[in-house]
Write a structure and sequence with these properties.
Elements: H1 7-34, H2 38-41, H3 56-62, H4 66-96, H5 104-116, H6 121-130, H7 148-159, H8 163-171, H9 176-187, H10 189-205, H11 208-212, H12 222-245, H13 261-284
Helix pairs in contact: 1-13, 3-13, 4-7, 4-10, 4-12, 10-13, 12-13
Keywords: Cell membrane, Membrane, Transmembrane, Transmembrane helix, Transport
Domain ABC transmembrane type-1: 71-277
Main location: membrane
């Protein structure tokens, strides 16, 4: 049986295809630029495929011995920070989802108040200093353990779970902690995956903490290190331009390798985005809340 195509269907698919292409093409361009010779890329006309293929841009990025240590710090903070954040927010949301919780309104307002008012950067820095978190690994994890909006999202999801499930579990002799582990958590897969993605991306993309709260080079995350490398590349480019204008000879990274600050920037972008692009499709399927369908039979 042939499928009938209406004008609306054709128009709808065409619009969706254009929107999808507009979202994907920047990644294609960045990847092609990063795999092309830097000096050749300055001529332009690179759209989908590299014209002069090379891995020199990535070789120069990874030639920095600190890059691997920075990746280890970033992976550790992302995994540990995401796990602890989801555990804490889920426990708080589960407690606040109970209407029988004494002082429920007070606790909700208490955790909501810091979301409205912020003391600013300097008081926050002094607080971290008094807690002896400055220049330690935990300065990446502890300040990001709490997020009111994530608690609200999880609490709203948990309030949608039928109370009959918990009541039947209590009849079977389950306590609150057993109900949380055996019933609530298995049904909360979609919202936990969503929150994990949110906080995981925040940890992975955070460069501010490493730039302002850490001076130990061994504890700098990859985002901060890549920013420093990009700054160094820009400084080298400026010095090369000044030397060229003065008729001198340039030495350094881009003098004979064919790499330019722009090509290195593209390689850095690929390195930064690639891990998230690999993880995101595996979490996307959990966003559908169909797991609740049929959980309660009438």
């Amino acid at each position: 049986m042939k499928r009938k195509w209406s004008f609306f269907s054709i128009f709808n698919y065409a619009v969706l295809a254009l929107v999808g292409f507009a979202m994907i093409y920047p990644f294609i361009y960045i990847l092609a630029y990063s795999l092309n010779d830097g000096k050749d890329s300055m001529m332009g006309s690179i759209y989908f495929l590299p014209r002069k293929f090379t891995l020199e841009n990535y070789a120069q990025v990874f030639d920095n011995a600190r890059i691997w240590q920075a990746y280890r710090i970033t992976i550790m903070r992302t995994l540990i920070g995401t796990f602890l954040h989801v555990v804490l927010c889920t426990l708080m949301a589960y407690a606040l989802s109970k209407k029988t919780l004494p002082g429920r309104s007070f606790f909700t307002f208490y955790i909501f108040l810091p979301t409205i008012f912020s003391a600013g950067f300097i008081p926050f820095f002094i607080t971290l200093q008094k807690l002896q978190l400055i220049n330690t690994f935990w300065v990446y994890v502890l300040p990001m353990l709490y997020n009111f909006m994530h608690i609200v999202i999880i609490r709203t999801f948990l309030q949608g779970i039928p109370e009959e499930l918990e009541e039947s579990a209590k009849i079977d002799g389950y306590g609150d902690f057993q109900i949380f582990l055996r019933i609530i958590l298995p049904l909360s897969g979609p919202v936990l995956a969503t929150i994990s993605l949110f906080i995981g991306v925040a940890h992975w993309n955070d460069w501010f903490s490493g730039a302002y709260y850490v001076s130990n080079k061994e504890l700098i995350p990859v985002q901060t290190l890549l920013q420093e490398m990009l700054t160094e590349a820009e400084a080298l480019s400026n010095s090369m331009q000044r030397a060229s204008q003065q008729g001198g000879q340039t030495v350094g990274m881009a003098s004979g390798a064919g790499a330019t600050p722009e090509s290195l920037r593209m390689a850095l972008l690929v390195i930064t985005v690639f891990p998230i692009l690999c993880i995101y499709p595996f979490l996307q399927r959990y966003f559908v809340k169909g797991v609740m369908i049929g959980s309660v039979k009438g």
